[in-house]
Each structure stands twice: as structure tokens, then as C-alpha cells.
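Design request, C-alpha cells follow.
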């Protein structure tokens, strides 16, 4: 019985150790990753060997993840993981300066090598992705050559990247009679025209530039329109 208990205890210790190891690996990226949007330019610096930089992306539909990368170090490793910690295989690459090589783990580890003349790697690495969360890791490798700077842009299917109409940020306000306030709009892409309209001009008036004036007690809806996007702002006058 004592032998059986000892064996059971040893088995549980081994299982816990294995479990802890797998959790540590996946949790490391989740803890350090910074969320980025599709098409956003990102810059960072990896100062020492095996310094890492982790990023998180949310893919909204099946498609392609493209990482346009400029690396100013002699070797930079790039890894893409799905939410389960599995490495995603490289689908394609295009290099205009420097070179690349793969590890032997199913062509899922990409090592960007610089051009020793320009001391840069410039290229695009592509991955096939489906809807879900992914993590991108950059790691410095192979000595201390270069200043360690990285500039990259990740493009992938996302709700924000597929939106071509203007987008308005708005406020919900409570005002007193006689108050005036200038409303503003954050529009993407820039250059789009915003129009303003009040549902009850006798309660709240609004100018073409978004200046609202509370005239009497009541409620009015201010509508801001930009292209096909509209936002409604509820104004309560006390």
C-alpha cells in the first residue's frame, strides 16, 4: 500500500511538473503580448541576445497574415502562435534585402538575416490564418551585430481594416438651459465631412460645425453623420 501511494505521489508530481511547464510557455506570451491592429506601424528594439517582443492580434475571418519587417540586426527570429500555443507555418516570403532560413520544426520558425552591407533585413512573411487570436514573437539571435531595431506592420483580416466609411466618436451629455458646447468628431479616414442635425431644434440647436445650444428643458437627439456612418447623441436639458 505504501509503495502504491509513493508511486501515485510520484506520478502526480510528474504530471504537475509537465502541466506547469506547458502553462508557463503559453502564459508567457499572453502576459507580455501587446495588442495591435491591422495595418498599424510598430517599432521596438531588442538590445541583447534572446530579447523578445510579443504582440497579439485578433483575426476576424479566414485569410492571410502578412508581416512587413525591417530588422536592423544580424539575426531576428519570428514566430507566430495560435491561441493554443501551436506554431503557424510560413506560407510565403518576399525579401528585398538580406536573407532567411527555416528551422526544422515544420518550417514554422523564420529567421531573418541581415544584408551585411546595408545591415538590414527587409521583407514580408506571410501566414495562413483563420478566425481567432494569434501571437507574434520577435527574438534576437546570433550575436550582437546591429542596433536591434525592428519596424514592422502586420496586416490581417479585421473588422477595423475592412471599414472604409467614416467613424465618429461621440458624447452623451446633460446640459443646463442656456449652455453652449462645441462637439467634435474623430473621423477615420481623415477628410470625411461630418453633418449635424437636431431632432428638436426648440430644445437643442446645433450648427453645421457641431456647436450645440440648450434652449429649454427637454430631450433632443443630435445626429452626427459621416458617409454611411451615423452616431446619435442624446442631450438632456435641465
Amino acid at each position: 500500500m505504501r509503495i502504491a501511494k509513493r508511486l501515485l505521489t510520484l506520478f502526480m508530481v510528474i504530471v504537475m511538473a509537465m502541466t506547469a511547464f506547458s502553462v508557463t510557455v503559453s502564459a508567457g506570451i499572453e502576459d507580455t503580448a501587446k495588442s495591435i491592429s491591422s495595418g498599424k506601424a510598430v517599432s521596438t528594439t531588442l538590445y541583447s541576445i534572446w530579447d523578445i517582443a510579443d504582440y497579439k492580434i485578433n483575426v476576424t475571418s479566414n485569410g492571410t497574415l502578412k508581416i512587413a519587417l525591417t530588422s536592423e540586426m544580424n539575426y531576428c527570429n519570428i514566430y507566430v502562435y495560435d491561441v493554443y500555443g501551436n506554431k503557424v507555418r510560413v506560407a510565403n516570403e518576399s525579401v528585398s534585402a538580406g536573407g532567411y532560413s527555416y528551422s526544422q520544426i515544420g518550417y514554422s520558425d523564420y529567421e531573418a538575416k541581415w544584408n551585411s552591407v546595408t545591415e538590414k533585413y527587409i521583407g514580408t512573411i506571410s501566414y495562413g490564418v483563420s478566425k481567432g487570436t494569434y501571437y507574434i514573437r520577435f527574438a534576437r539571435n546570433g550575436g550582437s551585430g546591429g542596433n536591434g531595431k525592428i519596424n514592422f506592420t502586420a496586416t490581417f483580416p479585421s473588422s477595423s481594416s475592412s471599414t472604409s466609411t467614416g467613424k465618429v466618436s461621440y458624447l452623451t451629455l446633460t446640459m443646463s438651459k442656456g449652455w453652449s458646447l462645441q462637439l467634435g468628431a474623430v473621423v477615420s479616414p481623415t477628410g470625411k465631412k461630418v453633418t449635424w442635425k437636431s431632432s428638436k431644434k426648440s430644445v437643442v440647436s446645433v450648427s453645421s460645425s457641431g456647436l450645440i445650444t440648450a434652449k429649454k428643458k427637454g430631450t433632443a437627439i443630435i445626429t452626427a453623420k459621416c458617409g454611411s456612418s451615423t452616431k446619435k447623441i442624446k442631450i438632456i436639458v435641465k
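Comment from the thread starter after seeing the answer: thanks! The chain has two domains: 27-155, 173-237.
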